[in-house]
Structure formats: C-alpha cells, structure tokens
Amino acid sequence: MNLANMTDYHHFPIYAIMVLFLGAFVVSVAGAKPSGNLKNPAGARAWIALCATGLSLFFLVMLIKPVMLEGEIIAYWMGSRAIAGGYAIGIALEVDALSLFFALLIATAVFVSAIYSIRYMVHDDCVPQYYVLYCLLAGGVLGLVLSGDIFNMFVMVEILTFAAVALTAFRTKVYGALEAAFKYLVVGCMGSTAILTGTIMLYAQYHTLNLAQLASLIPGTLNNATKLAFAFLYIGFSTKAFIVPFHPLAADAHGAAPASISVLISGVLTKSGIYGIIRLTYFLFQTMNLGSMQFMLVFIGSVSMFVCVTMALAQHDFKRLLAYHSISQIGYVLAAVGLSTSLGISAGLYHAMNHTLFKGLLFLAAGAVLHETGTTDLGKLGGLSKKMPHTTALFLIGAFSISGVPPFNGFASKWMIYQASYQKAVETNNIGFLAVTIIALVTSTLTLASFVKVSQSVFFGQLPREYENVKEVPFGMRLAMGILAVLCILTGIFPNTVTGVLTQPAAKAVADVGEYITAMGFKSNLPVPEVSFVQVGVWEPINWLLILCIALLALTIVAVAGKYDRVSENEGEQVETKYQLFYGGEKNVYSQVGGGDLFWGFKHNWRHYFDFMHDLHSGIVNDYALWAVVALALAIVYMMIVL
Amino acid sequence: MFQKLIAESTAKSPWLFHINSGSCNGCDIELVAILTPRYDVERLGFKLAGSPRQADIVVVTGPVTKQSLNRVLSTISQVPEPRCIVTMGSCPQSGNVFKGSYSVCAPLSQYVHVDVDIAGCAPKPEAIIDGLAKATKILKEKRGRM
Amino acid sequence: MTANIFLNGLQYLGYILIFPGFLFCFVCGMLLTGIDRKLVARMQKRVGPPILQPFYDFFKLCGKETIVPAAASRTTFLMAPLVGLAALVVIQLFIPIHGFSAFSGMADIIVILYLLLIPALAAILGAAASGSPYAGVGLSREMVTIISCELPLVLILLAVAKTVGNAMGTGLCFSMSDIADYQVQHGSLITRLSMIPAAIAFAMVIPGETGSHPFDTAEAETEICEGMHAEYSGAPLAAFKLSHAIKVLTLTSLFVALFFGGIGTGLVALDGVIVFALCVIATALFISFVHAVTARLKIEQVFKYYWTVVSGLALVSLVLAWYGM
Question: Which member of A402, A506, B38, C94 lies 3.0 to 4.6 Å from C107 by CB, making a disulfide possible if both were Cys?
Fold first, then answer.
C-alpha cells in the first residue's frame, strides 16, 4: 500500500475510530511508572489522549468537503471483503452526511473535554485508567455512528456503555457514584440486551446485518417478528438517549461522574441514542411517513421536554439540574426529528449540535465550580462571580444559549423548531403539532428560569465565608470552556452557514434513503425526494446584532460623557456602612436567597404535580428497571397495533 | 445647561425615605397623611422610596433610642449624595418627653448633620409640607455645590 | 455609489437614534408614564404630579451619586441597565407604525417574544449581581411573572400568526411587517371574531409585563424595598426607570400594531402621533385604570391568574383562529 493510497480520504473514517482505540491501548502501556513531573504525574497520558482525540477530529474535519459539500457517501469495506452472492459478509463502514454530522459533534466534544481533563483530573488518582476508559468511550461512540452494520453498532454500544458505567463510578468517594453506576449498569444492560435481541430477530429473518441491505429488504415486509424487533431496537436506543422514561438514570449518572465525563454522557452518549433512533425509523424500517410513528416520536419528545424541565426546576444540585435539562433539550431534538419534514430534521439536528456545545460548556462550568469549591449544591454556593469572573462569563454564555436568548445558538435552533412544528401543524391541519410549538416555547422560558436560579444561587448573590479564598480555575480549563463558548456564539450568529454546511446535507441524507442503499452496492427503487428548507419567519442575527451594537455604542457614549462609570466604591479592607447592603440598618449577615426553592411562586401552584413526580422518581433501581420493562411492553403493543 | 437641568430636576423630584427611630407612630401617621388626596405632595414630585439607595430626603421620626441609633446612622450613610436629612416632630430634636431617659440618644444632630427640623408633636401636615419644601431647596443647593 | 451607501447609513442611524429609536422612545415612554401617574392621581381624587414628572425623576437620578455595594459584581451591576435599555430600543425599532417600518421587515413575532425577555433578563442579572437578599426575592418574583406572562403571550402571537396567515392564503405568517401591511389593506385585526379574546388577553398581559399594579410583586416597595432595584442608585437606576417607561411604550405599541394596525394615514409623522395617541388610550385603560382599582396580588396568585384566566382567553382565540373565524 503506497502513501497516496493511505492518504485517500476513504480511509479516514476508520482512522478516526482506530486512532482512539489505539490511544486507549497506548495510554495503558505508556508511563507504566509515574513520569518525572510530580505536579502532574498523568501528564504524558493526558497528552496522548489529547493527541488521539485531536487526530480523530482532524480526520473527520477532512471529510466535510467530500461528504457534506459534495454529497458523497463513503462506503468502506474492512479488508476489502465486499458483497458476495448478494449478501454483505464483511464489516462495513458507511459514512453519509448524517453519520458525519454526529461524528463531528462527538469528536469536538471529546476533544474539548480532553483539553479540560488535563487540569481537571490532576487531583484524582487512577488517572491512567481514566484516560483508557475515556478513549474507549470516545472510540465506541464514534464507531457506533460511523458503522455500516447493525451488529457493529451493538458491539460499540456495549463498549461505550461499559466505559460510561466505569467512568460514572470513577470517583468512588463521591456520594452516590457507585449507586448511580449500578443503576446505569442495570438499565443500560437492559437496553443493550434489547438491541441485541432486535438485531438477532432481524438477522434470523433477513440473513444480513448490513444496514443498507436491511434498509432495502425490510420495508414492505413488516411482519410481527419485524415489528417486535423494531420495538426492541427502539427501546434499546431510547435507553442510550435517556429520553422518557429513562431520564432518572441520566440525572444520577451526570451528577456522580466527573464533569469532563458528564460532557460526554450528555453531549455524546445521548446523541448516539438519537442517531440510532433516526437510523432505525428513517432508514431501516422507513416508517416515518406514518402518522402514528410521527406521533410517537413527537409525543415522547414533548413529554421529555416538559417533564424534564420541570424536574430540573425542582433540583438543588447544579449537575443534576444540568442533567435534567440535557434530556429536556434531547426532547426538543426528538420532537423536531419526529416531525418528519426536512425543516424539522434540519432544525432537530441543529439543536442537537447546539446542545452538545452549550451543555458541554455548562457542565465544564459546573466542573470548574466543583474543582474550586468542592461542592455543586446550589444551597451552599453563592457569589462566585467576584472570585471566578471568567467562569461566570462563560457560564452565562452557556446559560443564555440553552435558554434561547438571541443571538446565541439555542435561539436559532429552537426558533427553527417552532417554525417547523407550526408549519407541520398548518400543512397537516393537525392541531396536535401546534401543542408541540406551545410546549417548546413554554419549556424554553422554564429553562431560562432554571438558569436564572443557577446564576443567582452559584455565581451571584452573596459569597459564603468558607469560599473567601476560592480562585479562578487554571487556564487549561478556561480554554476548553472558551472554545465551546466561541462556538456557541458563532453557530448562533451564522445560522444559515451552519445549516447550509452541516445540518441541511444531513437532513437531505435522512430524506434520501435510496442513495444510502445504492451507495453500499444494493438495489433500491426509492425515489429521490424533494427537500425544501423554506422558513416562514425571518431572523437576521447579524443585522440585529449590528443594530444592538449601534444602540449600545450610542448609549455607552452618552453614559461615558455623563460620567456613568464614575461610581463611589469601597476602598480599603474594612467595608464602610455606606457600601454594605441595605438590611434595614442591621449589620450585614450572610443571607443568600437561592437554592432549589427560588421559584416557589411557580412551584406552589404546581405542588401536586411536583409531589407526584417526587413519588414517581423513587431512586430505586428496581423501579427504573420496571419502567424499562413497561416501556418495552408498551412499545411492542403500540408497534403491533399501528404498523 | 445639562447641570442646570439636573439641579432644577433635583428640586422637583425629591424622594423620601422614612426612618422610625422609636417613634410613637403619631408623626408616621402624619407623614402618610401628606400623601392623601387632601394634601397630595405628589404634585410637588414627592414620592416614598422603598430603599435608602433611591432616596433624596431622609425623614427621621422618634427619639433615636439606643437600639436604633446605629441602624439610623448606617441607613443614613447608605443614601447617595446629594441628600437631605429632615427630623420630624420634637423627639429627634430634643427627646421631647423622653429626654433624660437612659435609653434615648436624642438629639440626632449630635451624630449627623441635620438640614431641616420640623417641630411639633406631631407636626401639622402643612408644617411638614413646608419643611419638606425647604429641604428641596437645600437639596438643590447641595446639587449645585457637587 | 459611496454617497448612496453613506446616505443609507445615515438614514438607518437616524432610525436608531431619533425615530422610532432613542429620542422617540425616551420622549414618548416618559410621557406615557407621566400620563399614567397623572391619571392614577386623578382617579384617586388627587392633583397628581406634573406630566413631565418622569423627566424630572430621570434627570435627578442622573445627577445622583452611584453607589456600588462592596458585595456586588461591579461589571454586571453597571452594565445590566444599559444592555436592557439598548435591547428595548431595538425592540421598538422592530414594531411597525402603520405602514412604516424601520427594521420590522427583519422581525417576526417569535423573535419579538424572545427579545422581550432580554430587558427582563438584564434586570434580573443586575439584581442578582447586587447581592442583596431583597433583590434576590425580587428577581425570583420577576422570573415567575415572566413565566406567567409567557404562556398567554405565546398563545396570542400564534393565534395572530394563524389568523393573518389564513387571510393571506399562506396559512402562517410570522413577519411583523406583513401583519402591519395586511391590516393596512384589510382593516384592523380586532374586527375579526377570533382576535377579540386575544386582544383582551394581551391587554391583561400588559400590566404583568410592565410590572404595574396589581402584578408589581417584583418591585413591591413596601414589602421588599423595591425588590430588584434595592441596591441601585443614581444613573443606573435612571436607566432602569427609563427602561420601564420604554417597556410601557413597547407593549402598548405592540398591542396597537397587532390589533389596531389599520388605523393611519400613510404619512409617517402623523401616523406616529396617531399610534402614540392609541398607546395613551391603551395605557390609560390597561395600566392606569387597573392600577387605580386593584391591590397587589401575591406571586402565586399572579401565576395562577395568568395560566388560567388569561391563557384560557388566548386559547379560545387560538382555537377560533385555527378554524378560520
């Protein structure tokens, strides 16, 4: 094999995966004894992991041009074992725009999180194991989205589940870490088993595991066994995406895992589940033209959206709150994808990307707080903005993004989702889709409320005395957050570029299943669909930003001329009474308003609902396993009835 | 011109903050009386502020008990300049019937510069309005000196 | 060519700075609040402050000392009022006046819904940055008020979008300027049956969004010391007072633009006066009158009221619009 052949971009997908698995191996071998740098004994391993993830990202970025822009689908047979006798025998990778889209998200999140880990994990022991598992997890997810056959998807799911479980339990000293990992293990294994069962049922019927071939064989031949397989696979990928009813696991796992792993669980693992569901519904079974399937995805998406945002409002732990929001945002993605219009899919994928960026940023900010103060309890923190100004600014960018404040990226994608759902409602004359628009809009405000709670409870308000000596986090951690913050702003300001380059090709790929099948060498008579991304609304972030900047500039000029910033401030160590807070004349005492019950005016009216939810989320793993079984049963019954 | 505008406005929009330093509530009721339709000082721009940060005129009633002294002083210090301190009723000026008590610190002028004293137990609303009008003039002067 | 671009730029700068931007907002907003205070006073049989009173208050506050508490986060504390003010002026630019629209071609109603969050959010962050517990309670209530108003607003705006879209044949219309154009051609939306409940619901939302009686729980000066503004003094407080005044103008002119858009002559200056007159009427009816006859609600009552009565009305409107009435 010559060099020209090696640098052919058709090899890049497998390089991207192998680099991570090789990285896992090298990390475990390298540095059998601690390196000389005592301050950072895991240094070498961290850098190896960073290089591996960086290389992987590089390979995927190189694929943007052929796959996204030119619309090529890369079908890659391992060991050149292509189709024999009409059946796909070998292992295949198939990279279309959808796969590449998710792969890029994953690689970005993994790379940024690796930068963050270098300084974040300094104080932990067992760092070598951490990086081995880290690379395995990253490789597993990447393999899952790039894989071209369903059994490999299952293998990758297994790898990533076990890596994720081990990483959840990584900080064994943290209260609840082992318990969370156990819950995740139990329900995660039920999910993996469901995927395996579904795969077996498909193999028994169609004698192939190749996705493209299955996609060409299954539609039109749905019998009870196939429907059963569909239900099993759907539930299996649902557990990976943590959508309702599997959301309590996410809360426990995110809360207990180190922040850099929470980023992966929320930004990467959930995406792999969504990817699986899209592949399943749009490609393998091609059922998304049925109203019943659209209803199922949209319904579950909306329920996830609303239930998880209200659960988040009731949380009093920073990371658990973020975990629930994570599922709430995944609900947006699922509902948008379930609309089954090109605009909806594009909007959903756009939101998936934004979710990876802003939720990564928020988890890293939570990790920064944990790193410096040792707690993420909203009731114990406060006033950190004076000590950690950069982290606060970065957190606020993430918070604005997730709450959909213009011009950040969350707004751009949510706004597309509103339009897509309303347009769908008008087109089908079905008032049910209108409910999605309303739920999505209200959920967005509740998200904002929840992040106002976090900013008041953690970053603003009053500083508790025990955190007087807190410092800003090291540069490496701020750098990782900064990258994500810049991406959040850029993807918000240039929505048309982002959708044009990334999400619309992916949405086209979802619509054009025939191309996916023929690219692998199988026959398909599916027509090439018409896709349109016409939007009703107008949103020109650049112009808006320009106007806002001019307005702000004019105001600032007036303010500066009027000596707005000539304020009187306390000088010296002792705080004069003039600069103390007004307490009706009393001496200043610590009285922070914040924590879980900040919005009691809202919660009071919903107390019965919250009581019900509180009882429902018992935290007992048996209950959650039961939920999984019930969900599976319901899915089976539903599929049997409607398909 | 702008400075003149601000000085004019300062006289036309004085916001009151009311501190009770152990008063019998007589003066307090009279202070509220001037906001009623009969006297309506809002036509002069007066308004009761909820926080000392937003106040221009601090109205102190009561004989400044020991308990309240520090609280009164710290609250007065939290009012931004230019500010005007008005004592209302006889208590904060002399101690009135409480004079000589171990627990009373009146007069207030020992501790902080008082701009206007409104005498009476309790003062008539007309007297209060007159005193406050004087205070607005002082406020304007103070603004001019800033 | 360059001269052309320069002139265009100057024109847009004029829009932003003079009409319908800063100067217009400043004067009209302040006048509206002045009229409001005067009307409330007259309804209570008082003489009331002069109509120019808000101007006096504003300039006085500009001349006061600005105290930054030692516990506050300085940058956020000082920047929040300015950002909120700028954002409000930008929203005002997006609201069409009869047929004239400075920038409303690039605004749609969902964008406006979200832009309305920014000033409130700025106030909340400023309050949070001050560190005062009173401000903490205030911001909690303000946020709940926002949540309360959001559901009815969403329903109203979707109903408007559907009604105009139905009439235009596209099924759906989000664009602010299209809604204005439609009304110029076919008369005000209030004449349609489905829009009447929506208009009533929007009128009920106005006092909640502007934080006036009986929904002023967030700034309850007698119980939580002005709430969110407890630690603000001097020029930043002046900016907040101005923001409040402009918010009154924004919401009333949004109300006028959505439901009474057809009333006008085509002459921009005259239309500005007409719209302002309509805003005054709206303020008088929905802010002053309501202020004079009600007492402050508790925050959970505010929430309940908006999510039941007002949302119910808006939902009726949406359903009617859906079936093309």
Answer: C94
